[in-house]
């Protein structure tokens, strides 16, 4: 054996345990070790076929005293009274056999730690023409995803599960986007977009600023993965307008510039049939008041006309500048005997109409700040991914009903825009708390949009990156359509659910102990999920970590206090050539 082989030998295939083509055990050499997730390789000569190579990943390691019969023997062995020796056995799950002749590894065969080309073959990296780095394995070497299973070529969508605040789901999803955009796996990355909904604080409003904690070690970790340790270059940030403020100032506190306010005008609400998204938390589509929703939405589209330049509308002859005024008009029309048939339906009963009215009026507090005709309208308040690569929509200050409305309307609009534009670019949609928007039971407009993305988005170029605390509470069709499944820290009860059947038993237990930054990544080509650690974000994750706001986005705020010319791009300032225009 040459020196390289001698330094990588870790043991031999155990003869005391059954070896199968799919699982075998390794007796570890006293001077070596194996840990969970290590990659190993062993070879066997077959008559007439030649060498067959079996690759595998360590799923369990046990140690015991050989020669001991009782628990107390450990003290005698330690004192040298009873002869025995320590033996460690590693269980290996086979990942690949080359050539495909599924025979068990032969007991006594040398087992080596897989390195270089052997490791790449064991984990199918040699078959990945477009590799997306997702972190470093337990051996300190890069682990990759196959871009074919992310961009719709052979599959699409990502499901990330884990305990809130510990599993670092959002951080990993952003790192994945950074790797996709900057890692070179996507030939036309400048045409790809990301739509990110921020539902927990203002942490995502600093993706364009370097992290003050960025040091040489962190830069080296990114370099090892083939990625720059830099923040996102082309970004746009949106937040709802501040309540009771008539200037359109965005409702944020940590970042005072570079954020634009968004809302929908009364005229737009009527013309674009947005009423169903007011009822995005509908329990069951069989409820008869849902028929009233669509009837009223139709009347609003037909019987409304824009009034002025501030987004107000004349609805059936009544001027509406606020959402409350619009609600009053609708309630009056569906209860008035002369207009009820046209607005609510000729055979709709009073009970059904009252159920609709109760739900509509209960939406006033949540949506009055988002649907309005009393602010000076301008194109920049419209949510769109067209002018930047990464678009962050901050909705954490909104109540749950308003969050549902924003997510539903935005996803539907972006999906329709992408479908109309045709192939030629990708839209990655990152949504946290997916179990809230697409629960396993019931139906709603938002859930239908998400199901459409999960089932048809691959052909449209719309890719869903969904994160949730509990995959068991998310619509099955969304989870099952996700080619890539990622798990962080899990609750013990959740880990036992069948949705995590792709994890080996040992990884289910480990998932309850996983530290922040450790994820278990499952993809179609590799039969065993791989544990990875991803580096600390190179972008600021909170105000205290943020450096100066980049000039390219510093003037995006619609607040009157901001400099309207601060966002003017300089020549060559945006590497993607799509700096958002100032306003």
UniProtKB/TrEMBL annotation:
TM ranges: none
Region described as Disordered: 550-583
Signal peptide: none
InterPro entries referenced in this protein's UniProt entry, alphabetically: P-loop_NTPase (IPR027417), T4SS_component (IPR051162)
PANTHER family reported for this sequence: SLR6007 PROTEIN, UNCHARACTERIZED PROTEIN YJGR-RELATED
Protein name: ATPase
Organism in which the protein naturally occurs: Amycolatopsis mediterranei (strain S699)
């Amino acid at each position: 054996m040459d020196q390289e082989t001698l330094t990588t030998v870790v043991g031999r295939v155990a003869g005391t345990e059954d070896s199968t083509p799919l699982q075998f055990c390794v007796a570890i050499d006293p001077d070596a070790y194996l840990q969970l997730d290590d990659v190993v390789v062993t070879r066997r000569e077959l008559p007439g076929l030649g060498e067959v190579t079996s690759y595998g990943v360590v799923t369990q390691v046990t140690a015991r005293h050989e020669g001991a019969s009782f628990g107390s023997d450990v003290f005698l062995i330690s004192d040298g009274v009873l002869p025995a020796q320590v033996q460690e056995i590693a269980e290996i799950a086979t990942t690949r056999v080359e050539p495909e002749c599924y025979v068990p590894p032969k007991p006594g065969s040398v087992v080596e730690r897989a390195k270089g080309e052997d490791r790449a073959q064991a984990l199918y990296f040699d078959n990945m023409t477009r590799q997306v780095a997702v972190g470093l394995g337990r051996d300190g070497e890069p682990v990759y995803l196959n871009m074919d299973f992310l961009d719709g070529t052979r599959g699409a969508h990502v499901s990330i599960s884990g305990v809130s605040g510990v599993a670092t789901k959002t951080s990993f999803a952003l790192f994945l986007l950074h790797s996709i955009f900057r890692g070179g796996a996507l030939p036309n990355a400048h045409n790809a977009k990301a739509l990110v909904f921020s539902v927990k604080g203002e942490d995502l409003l600093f993706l364009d600023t370097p992290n003050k904690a960025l040091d040489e070690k962190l830069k080296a970790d990114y370099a090892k993965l083939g990625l720059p340790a830099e923040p996102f270059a082309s970004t746009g940030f949106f937040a709802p307008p501040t309540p009771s403020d008539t200037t359109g100032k965005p409702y944020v506190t940590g970042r005072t510039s570079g954020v634009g306010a968004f809302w929908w005008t009364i005229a737009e609400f009527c013309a674009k049939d947005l009423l169903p998204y007011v009822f995005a938390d509908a329990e069951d589509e069989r409820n008869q008041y849902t028929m009233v929703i669509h009837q009223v939405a139709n009347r609003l589209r037909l019987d409304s006309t824009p009034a002025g330049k501030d987004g107000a509308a004349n609805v059936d002859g009544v001027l509406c500048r606020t959402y409350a005024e619009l609600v009053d008009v609708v309630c009056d029309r569906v209860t008035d005997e002369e207009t009820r048939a046209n607005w609510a339906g000729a055979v709709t009963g009073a009970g059904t109409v009252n159920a609709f009215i109760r739900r509509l009026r209960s939406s006033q507090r949540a949506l009055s700040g988002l649907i309005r005709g009393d602010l000076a309208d301008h194109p920049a308040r419209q949510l769109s991914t067209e002018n930047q690569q990464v678009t962050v929509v901050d909705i954490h200050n909104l109540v749950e009903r308003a969050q549902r409305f924003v997510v539903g309307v935005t996803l539907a609009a972006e999906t329709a825009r992408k479908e109309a534009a045709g192939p030629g670019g990708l839209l990655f949609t990152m949504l946290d708390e997916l179990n809230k928007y697409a629960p396993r039971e019931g139906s709603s407009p938002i859930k239908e949009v998400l199901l459409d993305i999960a089932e048809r988005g691959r052909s449209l170029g719309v890719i869903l990156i969904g994160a949730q605390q509990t995959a068991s509470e998310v619509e099955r069709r969304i989870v099952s359509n996700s080619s890539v499944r990622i798990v962080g820290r899990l609750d013990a009860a959740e880990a036992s659910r069948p949705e995590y059947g792709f994890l080996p038993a040992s990884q289910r237990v480990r998932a309850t102990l996983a530290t922040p930054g450790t994820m278990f990544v499952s993809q179609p080509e590799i039969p065993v999920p791989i544990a990875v650690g991803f580096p600390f974000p190179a972008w600021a994750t909170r105000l205290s970590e943020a450096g100066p706001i980049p000039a390219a986005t510093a003037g995006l705020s619609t607040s009157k206090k901001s400099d309207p010319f601060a966002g003017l791009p300089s020549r060559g300032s945006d590497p993607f050539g799509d700096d958002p225009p100032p306003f």
